[in-house]
Design brief:
Blueprint (H helix, E strand, L loop, with lengths): L3 H7 L1 E6 H19 L8 H15 E6 L2 E4 L1 E5 L3 H13 L9 E3 L8 H25 L6 E7 L4 H16 L4 E8 L9 H15 L2 E6 H11 L7 H16 L10 H8 L7 E7 L14 H14 L18 E10 L26 E6 L8 E9 L3 H16 L4 H5 L5 H19 L2
Parallel strand pairs: 1-4, 1-6, 4-5, 6-7, 7-8, 8-9, 10-11
Antiparallel strand pairs: 2-3, 9-12, 10-12
Length: 440
């Protein structure tokens, strides 16, 4: 029987928007369940059972059909194919499933156009979309957080995802909203992707409590150089993203009251700073886990350097003390695995990591768990509110501005009711975000 008080505190509703959001959402739930059944888990049978129940309380519906947990999720897309594949893959796994009543699709996409998704498709499906969200929320005693998964590049994920974030803030003002967004490859997945990213961030920034950004180019490097996947697919990149998400979202046996609300409170205390990045090590393939010989000291040393020099890889970094380094407003450090009681977080208390105006007690939050993550002997990750996204954001603004000055593709957005002034306002908002982070 579920502990009703625990269930009341921890419930989270995930919302998967667009093709990217649905693919990442499916992989995320698969990773959460795979971690629950991983061996060795490094804790007692009672502790492991408590951990599994906690995962179910947070991310799955308490009501189970034939013993298969149902993801507490809403699936939205303007095309049917990606969602149908997502629902089918979950059902075939036999480990967990989606509720078919939580799916909303249409026959037409959003044409990779933010304005079409935001101005037209969004208002058309608001009633049906929020009804599905409401149905999931009403199964919980209290929804403490929403996790919204989307891409910045396309039309549905960016446009409808932005609208949805606004609706969530309007209807659930007391709940936390964490948006997990994916930066597109700079080489271009969609020709207007920089417009879409610019408009998404400027509107979403006002309503989300935190925006966790994953960079496809950096994750591709991790797959190619550290996991030795010569030609990494998007599904393999998504698997890395979801391993990172699980490292933060899974319960921590050694730290009570961890989750999205605590994450947002510790990392985004100021409304001008909401962009988060995550780094997780060791960066090794799962089939080599058994040969790992990492120590906590070596892991935290490499992770700190990754943060300092803004590296996505734990090798080939600049270790010189005179090199350029980035600053963090705050960091959340999570350590999971064997002998975690000996974990030393002091390298992340270094003064040079933070601006002088940030209070020492607000700089670092530590979560620990003796239970291993997905079978890894030791894993540690850091979720940072730092200058790390500056390069990606600067690149998006610059490319979008060049296109805007040439009036390229503007007519496609104006056709759905978006005025040029809205572009100007979005540039101003993003330039302010960029200036805030550069000033840290």
């Amino acid at each position: 029987m579920y502990d009703l008080l625990h269930y009341y505190i921890m419930s989270v509703v995930s919302i998967q928007v667009g093709q990217c959001g649905n693919q990442i959402g499916r992989e995320m739930f698969s990773t959460l369940m795979r971690d629950c059944s991983s061996r060795p888990h490094g804790c007692s049978a009672a502790e492991n059972e408590s951990f599994k129940q906690d995962v179910l309380y947070r991310y799955f519906d308490a009501g189970e059909e034939r013993g298969v947990p149902t993801a507490r999720a809403v699936l939205l897309d303007m095309e049917r194919k990606a969602v149908a594949q997502t629902v089918s893959a979950a059902r075939v796994s036999g480990v967990w499933r989606y509720d078919p009543k939580s799916v909303l699709t249409q026959c037409r996409g959003s044409g990779n156009n933010w304005a079409l998704g935001y101005m037209e498709r969004g208002p058309q499906c608001r009633v049906d979309a929020m009804e599905r969200v409401r149905r999931q929320a009403e199964r919980c005693d209290n929804v403490v957080a929403f996790l919204v998964l989307l891409s910045l590049a396309g039309g549905t994920g960016s446009g409808l995802g932005t609208r949805l974030t606004e609706w969530l803030r309007e209807e659930y003002p007391a709940s936390f909203i964490l948006n997990q967004v994916t930066w597109p490859f700079s080489s271009g997945e969609v020709i207007v992707q920089n417009y879409n990213a610019l408009l998404t961030l400027s509107h979403m920034y006002e309503h989300a409590d935190a925006i966790l950004a994953a960079d496809n180019a950096q994750l591709y490097d991790v797959c190619r150089k550290r996991l030795y996947l010569k030609h990494a697919s998007l599904s393999q990149i998504n698997r890395v993203i979801c391993h990172h998400l699980a490292s933060v979202l899974q319960p921590c046996l050694g730290t009570p009251n961890t989750g999205i609300p605590q994450l947002c409170r510790s990392l985004t205390p100021h409304p001008s700073y909401k962009l988060l990045t995550i780094r997780c090590i060791p960066q090794t393939a799962e089939d080599t886990i058994r040969y790992a010989t990492d120590t906590w000291n070596s892991l935290v040393k490499h992770l700190r350097q990754m943060v300092l020099v803004n590296s996505s890889l734990d090798e080939g970094m600049d270790w010189s003390s005179s090199g350029c380094y980035i600053r963090s407003l705050s960091n959340l450090l999570v350590a999971r695995g064997r002998e975690v009681s000996s974990f030393d977080s002091s390298p992340f208390t270094e003064t040079r990591l933070y601006p002088g105006w940030v209070r020492p007690d607000a700089r670092l939050t530590l979560w620990t768990s003796s239970r291993r993550l997905c079978g890894y002997d030791k894993t540690t990750c850091v979720l940072s509110n730092s200058q790390a996204p500056v390069r990606s954001l600067d690149n998006v603004i610059g490319r979008a501005w060049n296109m805007f000055c040439a009036k390229a593709f503007i007519h496609q957005y104006i056709a759905y009711g978006l005025e040029e002034e809205e572009f100007v306002n979005s540039f101003a908002t993003n330039e302010q975000i960029l200036a805030n982070y550069k000033s840290l």
